[in-house]
Amino acid sequence: MNPAEETGSWKGYENLEYLFVFGASTSDVGYRHGRSPQPTKEQPLGIEYPGETWTERNEANWVGHLINQYTHSNPVVYNYAVGGHTLKGYAEQILKGFLDGTGDENSGVGWTAENSLFVSSIGGNDLANPDLDIVSCMTEIFELQYKLYEGGARNFVIFNVAPLPPPGDNVTEFTRHMLSKREEKCGEWNVMLPPFIDDFTAAYPDSTMFLFDVYSHTKKMQQDPTSYGFSEAAGRMYDQEMYIDNIHPSSKAHKHIAWHLGSFLSGKEMDRDKEEKYDRRPLEERHPSFGERIKATLHGGRNLGVQPLPL
């Protein structure tokens, strides 16, 4: 299905007013339902832009880049994603965070089936389990999409799972083996996802569900980093260009993904250098990112200038 075409409740990307995001660390901006302020047009994340992300300090992830440069409208974002969450946490985001909160008809939030988009990016943490039953996971994910549908959602985007960056030469054979098994599972997950999407839209023809192929876009960056403005050495764990650690992409990598998503939903390529909408506080006034706090924890806070996470 072409996102540029209006079908059913999908009135086109240019008419988007409410963006609901569910997932894990790559989508997490630090917004916490029930504790963070309500998102507004002036502060669309509910917290100060770009939030507290799992990338560099004071830098946006794909959610921030998307609303800052790669939307035609000015949507507000209800972001329930939490770093580290697996499918169990994802279910809580939907059932307790959204359906018992913003999704309740008495919440006073003005989203409708036509002006909203529900984005899910989940599965990466689950795939760390080599014995994962992917069919059971897919079944649960789409049962949760039905719960959203019951709650009034009609427009959905599902990310497939991105590849991890290749390791350097100094990893153990065991680690290399486990990473290889994870990538095999990732391939199985991504092959299995499209038929579930087809079945869902066939069962609920008044819904629109798009598959965003973050896997392919990420793989291209890893294999041809210079075409994306990185050095030839980028695209590996801890390269400090495309990845800030062994898992999490840099803000620059997130920006490429946001551009691809915005272009996909628009049905045509967007201007990569589109004017930014939101200002950021000076770096010295901001809290450290989750990524920096993880590093501080691993190194006891030494020489990093940030407080470790409480363990």
TrEMBL record:
It comes from the Eukaryota. Pfam families: Lipase_GDSL (PF00657). Gene3D superfamilies: SGNH hydrolase (3.40.50.1110). The keyword Metal-binding does not apply. Residues 270-295 have a biased composition (Basic and acidic residues). GO terms for molecular function: hydrolase activity, acting on ester bonds. SUPFAM superfamilies: SGNH hydrolase. Keywords: Signal. The keyword Signal applies. Residues 270-311 are annotated as: Disordered. This is Carbohydrate esterase family 16 protein. It comes from Tulasnella calospora MUT 4182.
